[in-house]
User: Which sequence fits this backbone?
């Protein structure tokens, strides 16, 4: 460690597959972490995961099953807006993966209401990168544009502030080979850097991680999780997700009233995951499909992030409550559970018993209340104004009416 | 949300190549994973996850068997601790990284690490089966016992007040010893079996069970430790074809205690006694063995408990006495017995009722003998709280009421009538 560093975050892998992610905090500046200490940490957190992975390898080998598998055609879409520096790093990692993949895949950059030509100039010299412009501002406008433009059978969405791991594609291919019926695959998201207190805090509190075990979500219920599928946060994160393209088209794409930047900054990914699962298509979380995300560096940015989670989550709940009558009772219990958990967390934070400052928890709570108080309706009217005359019904509404 | 009416039960031997496309039908299914004759784990596959390709089976199997495989291969870090609050803090240190990386063929190594009794060890064992008016089921059980490898010294069948002559004929034809016990009651019959058995270890199974051929071979080695006075094994459902069988296995929890060894020692007992030691989790009377010397020391089954008397729990009350006396009990899941659950839901409901009733009666008896007030706390607080929580959670999450819950609650109330047992003396009957 250098004198500025106070801890280590370690990702342990077995043959590229993530087995455990551990953060060792509160080390003395300049300290050395010995290989023995690292091995101790690895077995403490990853022993059973390692055994599982090795047994799976043995069983596959004994039955002559290849771990790697070919994949139907893929388009990777990066939606971006005026962040040429971030995008450059994102594309560098993504193109390296593409060039190492036999057959490659399509890379599509969707510029969302750009204010200058920096992104265009960045893309010009890059070989084999398609660019298109979506003039209506809003992430889900851009995502739907990507769905319309993509040529692959599967469409991946990655954010412009992530770096793609070299094993990303292999992880996706393995997940789809094992789950050929999957409608959506989400992946592991780890911190790209842990330079500031805000970034460390965010990752320590779980960040975007959903564990190092593959999970399959299918069917109307999940044993042990009565809130499924309403508690859509378990499914993954929007900065690293892949959909079967024809399924997205059938479902009407992303809800353009969500993820609109400042007015309603989130919920579009949750809404899409939820509708995929409600449609009956399995959703798979695949940790080997790994990206590294640059978290917000300052606490103010982190507070906005927490706010947007609260608001995005509850806007998604409010929307689903109005269109998916069958699941209302579960959504109501989700709100009750979330309010209780967040208020308890706030009480703990006030007494200094939480890692989170009370201001962040309060931000999430306020965001959630705003989300429940009609932000989805306001945002929908606004996005309809932007679209001027496009269909006003949100995606998902038609199906919900026919099933209920 | 509807509860499953039937569940397909599949057994997959991981020593053979993985089958492709198992479970193509539409009922939920349960897959038990074996390596040759040792079971290592199970997984439930719901209709939305069917059919299961060989690729996904590899994943499901690896996750299901990893804890039990690691427990057999590595000396520490993966053991299953007996049930108690705050047990995680007592977990042992994981094995060194080098050991985890260098051991190959983990499943084969795990199976090889499971001890197997020699014929001379097995010859120390008498098997006791108590039965009453179920000649067909008994025939099936005795057929399975004849396939045991290595065989026991003897098989003693106690005919507990059967009406006809059919039971005697079945036993004679199978070449087992026939003992008649006219006084009805499972505890009485078992004690009679112990009195007639000549082995130094007595193993029990039920007439509605079929032991695996390796049952005895896997059950006996745990007795090599002189502190161990009783060993229990894994009871798997033989079939889950009807609502009654599913309700027994899922709703009431069945008899399956998992795929890792568990050691119930006097230290664990001392820690859990204040809140009522959960001894009924040690195992089931359909798959247990005990040393004759232990019976001589603490007494046999309590004849006020068990089927035909208060209901059940005569087995766990005996374990309670053993643990009080400082003995150790071991759960060894490699010793497998398949149990044929009752098919009729009405039968399962009456069974649930007698189980609850017998459980409460056993708690009173345990208190009378030991003066451990945790048993009374369980009767007065923990059990009613458990029923209220289960009921409230079923209603809140719209699961539909558990099919046996009202029967269990009625059994509990009936069990309270056995309260005078708590004032009986400390002596064994």
Assistant:
């Amino acid at each position: 460690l250098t004198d500025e560093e106070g801890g280590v975050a370690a990702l342990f892998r077995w043959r590229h597959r993530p087995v455990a992610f551990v953060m060792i905090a509160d080390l003395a500046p300049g300290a050395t972490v010995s290989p023995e200490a690292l091995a101790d940490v690895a077995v403490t957190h990853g022993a059973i995961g390692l055994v599982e992975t090795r047994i799976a390898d043995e069983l596959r080998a004994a039955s002559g099953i290849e771990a790697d598998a070919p994949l139907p055609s893929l388009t990777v879409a990066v939606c971006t807006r005026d962040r040429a520096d971030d995008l450059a790093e994102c594309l560098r990692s993504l193109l390296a993966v593409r060039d190492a993949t036999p057959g490659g895949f399509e890379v599509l950059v969707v510029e969302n209401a750009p204010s200058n030509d920096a992104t265009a100039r960045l893309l010009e010299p890059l070989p084999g990168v398609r660019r298109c412009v979506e003039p209506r501002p809003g992430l889900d406008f851009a995502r739907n544009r990507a769905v319309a433009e993509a040529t692959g059978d599967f469409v991946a969405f990655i954010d412009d502030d992530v770096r793609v791991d070299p094993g990303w594609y292999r992880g996706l291919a393995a997940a789809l080979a094992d789950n050929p019926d999957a409608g959506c695959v989400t992946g592991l998201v780890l911190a790209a850097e842990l330079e500031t207190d805000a970034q460390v805090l965010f990752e320590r509190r779980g960040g975007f991680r959903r564990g190092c075990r593959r999970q399959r979500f299918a069917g109307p219920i999940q044993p042990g999780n009565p809130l499924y599928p309403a508690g859509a946060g378990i499914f993954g994160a929007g900065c690293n997700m892949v959909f079967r393209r024809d399924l997205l088209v059938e479902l009407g794409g992303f809800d353009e009233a969500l993820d609109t930047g400042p007015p309603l900054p989130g919920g579009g990914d949750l809404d899409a995951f939820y509708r995929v699962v409600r449609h009956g298509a399995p959703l798979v979380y695949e940790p080997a499909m790994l990206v590294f995300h640059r978290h917000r560096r300052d606490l103010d940015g982190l507070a906005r992030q927490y706010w947007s989670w609260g608001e995005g989550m509850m806007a998604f709940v409010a929307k689903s409550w109005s269109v998916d009558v069958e699941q209302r009772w579960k959504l109501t219990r989700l709100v009750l559970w979330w309010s209780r958990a967040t208020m308890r967390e706030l009480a703990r934070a006030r007494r200094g018993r939480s890692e989170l400052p009370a201001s962040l928890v309060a931000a999430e709570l306020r965001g959630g209340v705003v989300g429940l108080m009609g932000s989805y309706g306001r945002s929908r009217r606004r996005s309809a104004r932007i679209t001027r005359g496009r269909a006003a019904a949100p995606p998902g509404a038609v199906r919900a009416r026919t099933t209920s | 949300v509807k509860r499953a009416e039937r569940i397909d039960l599949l057994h997959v031997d991981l020593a053979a190549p993985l089958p492709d496309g198992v479970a193509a039908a539409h009922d939920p299914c349960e897959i038990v994973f074996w390596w040759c004759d040792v079971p290592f784990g199970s997984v439930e596959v719901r209709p939305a996850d069917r059919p299961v390709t060989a690729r996904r089976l590899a994943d499901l199997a690896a996750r299901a068997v990893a804890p039990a495989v690691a427990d057999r291969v590595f000396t520490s870090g993966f053991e299953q601790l007996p049930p108690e609050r705050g047990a995680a803090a007592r977990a042992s240190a994981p094995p060194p990284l080098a050991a985890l990386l260098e051991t190959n063929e983990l499943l084969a190594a795990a199976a090889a690490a499971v001890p197997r009794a020699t014929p001379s060890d097995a010859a120390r064992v008498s098997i006791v089966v108590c039965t009453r008016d179920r000649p067909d089921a008994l025939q099936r059980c005795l057929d399975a016992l004849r396939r045991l490898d290595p065989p026991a010294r003897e098989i003693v069948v106690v005919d507990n007040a059967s009406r006809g002559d059919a039971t005697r004929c079945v036993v004679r034809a199978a070449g087992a010893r026939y003992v008649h016990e006219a006084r009805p009651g499972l505890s009485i019959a078992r004690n009679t079996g112990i009195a007639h058995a000549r082995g130094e270890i007595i193993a029990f199974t039920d007439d509605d069970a079929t032991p695996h051929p390796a049952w005895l071979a896997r059950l006996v080695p745990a007795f090599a430790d002189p502190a161990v006075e009783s060993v229990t094994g894994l009871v798997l459902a033989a079939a889950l074809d009807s609502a009654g069988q599913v309700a027994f296995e899922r709703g009431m929890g069945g008899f399956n205690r998992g795929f890792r060894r568990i050691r119930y020692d006097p230290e664990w007992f001392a820690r859990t006694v204040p809140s009522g030691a959960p001894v009924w989790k040690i195992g089931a009377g359909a798959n247990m063995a005990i040393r004759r010397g232990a019976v001589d020391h603490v007494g046999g089954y309590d004849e006020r408990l068990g089927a035909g008397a208060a209901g059940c729990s005569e087995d766990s009350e005996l374990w309670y006495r053993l643990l009080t006396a400082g003995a150790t009990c071991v759960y060894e899941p490699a010793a497998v017995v398949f149990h044929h659950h009752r098919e009729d839901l009405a039968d399962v409901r009456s069974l649930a009722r007698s189980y609850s009733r017998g459980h409460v009666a056993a708690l009173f008896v345990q208190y009378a003998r030991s003066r451990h007030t945790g048993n009374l706390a369980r009767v007065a607080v923990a059990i009613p709280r458990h029923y209220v929580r289960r009921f409230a959670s079923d209603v809140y999450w719209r699961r539909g009421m558990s099919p046996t819950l009202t029967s269990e609650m009625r059994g509990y109330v009936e069990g309270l009538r056995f309260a005078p047992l708590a004032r009986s003396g400390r002596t064994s009957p």
Summary: The longest strand of chain B covers residues 328-339.
